[in-house]
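User: I'll paste a sequence; please echo it back and then give the predicted structure.

Assistant: Echoing your sequence first, then the prediction.
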Amino acid sequence: MSLGGGPGGMGGGRGGGMMRDEAEVRSANADAPEVPDLWRRVAAMFAPYKWLLVIALSMVIVTSALGVAPALLTQQIFDRALFPLDGSGPDLGMLWLLAGAMLGVIVLTAGIDLGQTYITSRIGNSVSTDLRVRMFERLMSMELAFFTATKTGELQSRLQNDVGGIATTLRSTFTAMVGNIVTAGASIAAMFVLDWRLAILSIVFLPPLLVLQRRVGQVRARVATRAQRSLADLTAITEESLSVSGVLLAKTVGREQAESARYRAANEHQRSLQMELAMRGQWFFSAVSVLMSLVPIIVYVIAGYLIAGELPIAGIGAGDAGLTAGTIVAFTSMNAQVRRPLLGLMRTGLDIQTSKALFARIFEYLDLEPSIVDAPDARDANPERVGELAFEDVEFRYPVLRGAQPEPAGDAAPPTLQDVSFTVGPGEFIAFVGPSGAGKTTIGYLATRLYDVTGGTVRFAGDDIRELRKESVVEHVGVVSQDSYLVHDTVAANLRLAKPDATQEELEAAASAANLHERILALPHGYGTVVGERGTRLSGGERQRLAIARVLLRDPAVLILDEATSALDTASERHVQRAIDAAREGRTVIAIAHRLSTIRAADRIHVLDKGRIVERGTHEELIARGGVYAGLYLQQDGDQRRGEDG
């Protein structure tokens, strides 16, 4: 449901502007938000898939443990098959046996790894899908104030880019971490089995590297937060500039090059951040790689001195019979086996620290709490009184935004509405007029509980609207706004947004009542014609009549017309006005009007100025009074006459 204008437009420009400005300032200056129990919550996302996770982790452990077998088999091939320690010649039978065992380990590892990849991909994709749905549902539950203060591109970025980044982390980083831990642990254990002295020599430098790795990860996490924020800005520019309205504006005011330059600048900023993210810590990994590559050289040298007896250790004298050729070859092979998972673990550690920014951004939105919710004892509207609506001393101030959560503005914010009171009964037609910014559209927001009052009471069907279920109110209210939202689908699909199970006969009856049926039949595919992005393949009058037909399909008891004809030419306005006249039959109608000619027949007209009702009465009474309404009417009438003369 959409009402024209909005807090950022008519009736609430001050509130919407403050919210957007403050949100952007805070977003630009804040690091990733702190989220309580972040990693506990991340682990909880795996709960529905715990058995698949157990299977996957078991496979990872098995394949990682098998990773040390080739090095141990290499030792046996050297010391038992190729160069037996007893001095006999090569044992070909043993060679074939050990070679076959090595081949079996390789084939078994590949098979298990294939199954493990399938299961971990399934878990990762399932968790990210669940997360995206949860986030979408939470966003859909938020009140209108949240969306007027948040760029659409920011929402899209969090749903697509952030969750997509998390999916990658879940699919690869987590399993890589477990696999690398097991592989590194098994390899180090095997190194100690082969020769504990060389093993200590190989791992003595690891603790300081781990400390340094943590510090590098913290820097990368900060860069990742900035990169995600930049990506959200880039997405927002894309959404704004490449929408039909954005392209039309750019072409009609000659801003194509300016928009391209804006996108190019944002894209360049994103590129620089991605490069910074890619290169942050690479010096660290290069140094680690060089250092670990030196270990085999050092092992060879130390082994030579040990065998020669030039470096006695632990009471071993000249010559060290324990260091056979097979042991040295197996040890250096195992050292290479350790280097890969240790480097992988360090990279994974950095990735996990970096992904913290993504998780924090996701949980920040998942933790949003809508301010407009059903009361615990909320009830349905009284069906016998659903056409009744009353405002009792209503005051309203638009909320401001603190972080990502709208909060009450407080007394410091200027009120948009003050001391507004009126009643309307079933079948009555009332209207609200006044200058821009007077608060007209805000009345429509409050009547549909898109916002809650900050003072006074709105009564719907005789009850405080805050005591009713929101769905019960929406069920009985239909809205036709100046900006009639249509999706890129067929005419029939757009109508069925209001009633998914509507029959073709019901669609045609609603379209006929809106004076649109014949025009639809003249379209290339009738009700199956695609209307284009936001209905751009239809004229403005046709879009409005389609919106009216959609409302009629729901058959609401209360109809709110928010500037429904203000953007149309005279001919289109006549068509739409006839459709509106048909829609008003038997319904309570609240018209928010700019063109006063459209509400002359209203039972009561309320004139708003600076958030207060300053006049009320019929058209004739207000004209005779010679007040604000009479001045507005005479001004519009004179403008219309001059337009016709021109």
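The first strand starts at residue 389 and ends at 396. The chain has a mean pLDDT of 76.
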